[in-house]
Amino acid sequence: MTGATGRVALVTGASSGIGAATARLLAARGMRVVVNYLRSSKAAEEVVAGIEAAGGQAMAVRADVRETAAIESMVEQVRAAWGGVDVLVHNALIPYAVKSFQDMTWEELGGKLDAEMHAAFAVTKAVLPAMTEQGWGRIIYLGTGLSRRPREGMIALGTAKAALEQFARYLAQELGPQGITVNVVAPGPVESRMADTVFDDAHKQRQVAATPLGRLAYPADVAQAVAFYAGEDNAFMTGTTAAVNGGMSMD
Fold first, then answer.
1. β-pairing, 241-244 with 137-142?
2. What pLDDT digit, counting tens, does each position of 87-133 carry?
3. Element spanning 232, H or E
């Protein structure tokens, strides 16, 4: 991609799934990629090794995005090696309860809201100075179709990601004059994540049946949308949400 060479991209939660697919794609397009992870050091190093084997540049950095000090330490480590972060892809999935409102405690709902927003707030604060200084930046948050279309048991995730989506719009308005775009990529059900949830195969088949394109998303499908928002080609889209759901829901 024209002009992408040398840009530094930080992808949070990049040791597997959408984050790993995004890290690989951005590296293939010439960016130097920071593969952030929390627990899966082996998986993160494998993503880095794969990128390097393909001729790209990457480094794995451990940090819990729920902790401000850890984020600042990570960004400082990146700055020392490569300079400021040009592209932030905030993908790290913060745990949440899957249950009905009636069964849920405030700690479960409020805790997810607080952790979701605090992570987005802290990681964005940490990368913003370098973007502002150079008058160019790309911020992409991973959302979910559940922000707009409820599904049984998903009130904690859907509510937290809806807050994140509105946060992104406010940032887009404020940061636009400084050459920084802020967008959200909202996947529908993703093939790799279905295995991690409490949903069974019959549920998955219902999701597929409700999707005009006839399958669930692959991590690579989501990564393609992220990569567009992250690049030089995206000069005039900000404050938008890209639904990557195969037509399962259409606004």
1. unpaired
2. 999 999 999 999 999 999 999 999 999 999 999 999 999 999 999 99
3. none
- Separation between Cα atoms, residue 53 and residue 31, nearest integer Å: 15
Rounded distance, CA 193 to CA 116, Å? 18
CA distances for 76 relative to 47, 72, 84, 130, 163, angstroms: 22, 6, 9, 11, 28
The CA–CA distances, whole Å, from 241 to 65, 70, 83, 174, 227 equal 22, 28, 29, 17, 14
For the chain, the domains span 8-244
Q: Are 113 and 44 in contact (CB under 8 A)?
A: no
pLDDT digit string, tens, across residues 12-45: 999 999 999 999 999 999 999 999 999 999 999 9
Query: Which of 72, 88, 94 shows the shortest CA–CA distance to 34?
Result: 88
User: What is the CATH topology of the domain spanning 8-244?
Assistant: Rossmann fold (3.40.50)
Tokens of 95: 């745990």
| Beta-bridge partners for 60 | 35
- The answer, as to whether pTM is greater than 0.90, is yes
Query: Looking at the DSSP assignment, which residues form a beta bridge with residue 88?
Result: 10, 139
**Burial of 35: CB neighbours in 10 Å, binned 0-12, 13-18, 19+:** buried
Nearest alpha-carbon partner for 244 in 32, 48, 21, 65: 21
Residue with tokens 């049946």: 209
CA gap 141, 231 in Å, rounded: 14
Cα–Cα distance between 195 and 33 in angstroms, integer? 27
